[in-house]
Design a protein that fits this description.
The protein is of the alpha/beta class and about 400 residues long. The protein folds into 2 domains: about 10-35 and about 300-405, Aspartate Aminotransferase, domain 1; about 40-295, Type I PLP-dependent aspartate aminotransferase-like (Major domain) (Aspartate Aminotransferase, domain 2, 3-Layer(aba) Sandwich). Helix content is about 40%, strand content about 15%. It has helices spanning about 40-50, 60-80, 95-110, 130-140, 155-160, 185-195, 215, 240-245, 280-295, 300-315, 345-355, 365-370, 390-405, and strands at about 25, 90, 115-120, 140-145, 165-170, 195-200, 220-225, 235-240, 255-260, 265, 325, 335-340, 355, 360, 375-380. α2 packs across α9 (about 280-295), α3 runs parallel beside α4 (about 130-140) and α10 packs parallel to α13. The longest helix is centred in the N-terminal third of the chain and has 21 residues, at about 60-80. The radius of gyration is 22 Å and the shape is globular. The protein binds 4'-deoxy-4'-aminopyridoxal-5'-phosphate (PMP). 4'-deoxy-4'-aminopyridoxal-5'-phosphate binds next to α3. Its EC number is 2.8.1.7. Keywords: Pyridoxal phosphate, Transferase. Belongs to the class-V pyridoxal-phosphate-dependent aminotransferase family. Csd subfamily. It is an enzyme of class 2 (transferase).
Length: about 400
Amino acid sequence: VLIVPKTETEALDHRADFPAIPAGWAYLDTAATAQKPQAVIDAITRGYDTTYATVHRGVYQRSADMTLAFEAARRRVAAFLNAGSENEIVFVRGATEGINLVAQCWAGTQLKAGDRILLSQLEHHSNIVPWQMVAERLGVAIDVIPLTPDHKIDLDAMGAMITPAHKLVALAHVSNVLGSLLDARRAADIAHSVGARLLLDGCQAVPRIAVDVAALDCDFYVFSGHKLYGPTGIGVLWARPELLDAMPPYQGGGSMIDKVSFAKTTYAPPPGRFEAGTPHIVGVLGLHAAIDYVESIGLDRIHAHETALVTLTREALSQINSLTLFGPEDSAGIVSFSIQGVHPHDIGTILDEAGVAVRAGHHCAQPLMETLGVDATARASFGVYNTADDVAALVRGIERVTRIFG
Ligand code: PMP
């Protein structure tokens, strides 16, 4: 039996903050969606049972108060990302909608036939398909940056392949399958050297590392609230103000207008221009609480904690001969693996019987699976509530898998 040593990982144990994680359950699927701390649940409950009203329209006090809370959340997000102003923060449904918005409103209006877009081999489908949709329409080509042998985006290759025809580079800040952390500042410098814009898909980064869009020097940044311990249905697009100013609206409707007549309609300035319709008001309040929650712990501590858990996991799993580990040693909070002769779904099912929840599948990254030479992987991903006990449960479960499959 493999022994998982208890280390300084025990120093961070926020399990008690999460009412939906019962004792004895090892929840290792935070990369899919994070469990919610009581503080976020309370913010959502309060939003509906005490303070609920619409925003931006009501003349009565309750609505004015809710508008203040809603806009305070926007300022909170701006501070969280170190954006220049809250007007650079667009609330969207999630990273998927944020990327589609940039693809349609920025790429769809700025790119022309013959231009090129640069993606990487490890992207999530939501950072591939929206670009393909716009590229097909415009006659734009897509190129793909390969990975290094330890499964990071190969920035040397990016430097060698980028040309002035590339107008946009869109990359995962942290890979949802491998945990590979991008040197985003270097990617921005390479992109800008040819005048291209850089979009970062920050879904897996914001819950794990401190993000500063000014220091990264990127042009667009997107993330989803639900992976940051917040609610589903709410996410963020940050963009440089001059880019937002030049973008036409994404959807038409209420709230995004300046003046409407049948002769001509004019639009509100950003971010309102991109937020048609009644927003996910309480979702925004929940996101605010989620940011307060992670910052009360500290992203540097969260990152150190998850790195210690990754190291424990990789050390223990590397002792199992039939098991292949993917991704870099210094992965941010995520470990993907396969076991010879066992389908990842069987791994997931047997682990579930042992009280360990992992993800099995292609993780919405089929081109990456092809590169790894597998149809699917099993993936363990960590959050603030995980401890060395969860790693031990995972390792015991995998030993059981290898016994069952001989
Ligand atoms: N990008 C990455 C790296 C992700 O992990 C995910 C979610 N799995 C997404 C994009 C899409 O996020 P959402 O489904 O919340 O829009």
